[in-house]
Amino acid sequence: MSLELNNSTSLPNRWHLLGIEGKSSDEILTLVDSAAGFREVLERDIKKVPALRGKTIVNLFLESSTRTRTSFEIAGKILSADTINIGSSDSSVSKGETVLDTAAVLESMNPDVIVVRHSASGVPGMLAKLLKRAAIVNAGDGLHEHPSQALLDLVTIKESLGKVTGLTVGIVGDVRHSRVARSNAFAHLALGNKVRFIGPSTLVPREFVAAFKSVDQKNSVEVFHDLEKGLAGCDIVICLRMQLERMEEHFVPHLEEYSREYGITERVLKLSAPNAKVMHPGPANRGIEISSEVLDGPRSLFHLQVKNGVATRMAILFHAINGLSADIISRKGVVANS
Under 8 Å CB-to-CB from 218, ≥6 apart: which residues? Predict the structure, then answer.
């Protein structure tokens, strides 16, 4: 996972979360286990721990979001951090200021973490290189990555199946434009799982596999343009949102045709992957990429993903400030002594 030690000598423990690519299974599993520990806090009557008391977190969301922005805000507040939320309409970006200038102004106010979401790929990485003090957390950047989504998906899989390894994972739909697909693929490959990209050739180009060559040492990535063949034997099915705003580019002839050929329904799951659990990053287009029967049914992990989003982002914020090591929670006494 792109959790890189901040080079500032005054902040020896700060870490950036920029993406999943290139990170080890140990790093990923440390965050997954840490999030599981924070889940216990969410079950308490008083959902508050002093883990980040006196710290300041800025959520800079220059692209619309409901789940990610809200869960980062709640996560920061549960950890007792002072949390400030800034949207595109609230910032000087709407007046023509560059995102770098905006971030530099914010850093001058000495926040500990800046959580950034942006429609352009690479913005969090740029900020991590150019800013000196704040840890940067990527909450989704363009077509690049959405690392916290992949982590919360792993937390959800572990809670549901009791494991995150030895799995076959099918990622279905608009892979071409999906940062969720990229982060999940990097995460599962790091854990030694098999990854299948499934969808029409326009949305799942075979050359897409080349992006994962550096981490796919066992040729674990496959592309399927036939839904039933691709789903056969999958343990987890990640159904991606059909990005309706892109349909004017004619990646599919018509949404009805896409739904007929690649929509996730109970019928096709019973036929090809009868024991599979189904995930969706949201928001879901019911009746297009997934049926309501599946989304609301017993195999769906959709609502558990949302619940685990808060605990996962608590873990991310905690480690962004305190560093990433297997024993850091026990040393800090975050849960047990709070």
Answer: 192
Q: Which domains does the chain have, with CATH numbers?
A: 3-145+309-328 (3.40.50.1370), 147-303 (3.40.50.1370)
**Site of tokens 């799942």:** 204
Residues 6+ apart with CB under 8 A from 23: 1, 2, 3, 186, 190
What is the pTM assigned to this prediction? 0.91
CB–CB of 320/4 below 8 Å? Answer: no
Q: What angle do CA 86, 90, 96 make, to 5 degrees?
A: 115
Three-class DSSP category at 171: strand
Q: Are 107 and 114 in contact (CB under 8 A)?
A: yes
- Which range has the worst mean pLDDT, 142-151, 167-176, 180-189, 242-251? 242-251
Cβ 268 vs Cβ 232: under 8 Å: no
Distance CA 268, CA 278 (A): 12
- CA 42 → CA 38, 73, 244, 306, distances in Å? 7, 14, 34, 13
Note the pLDDT of residue 154: 98
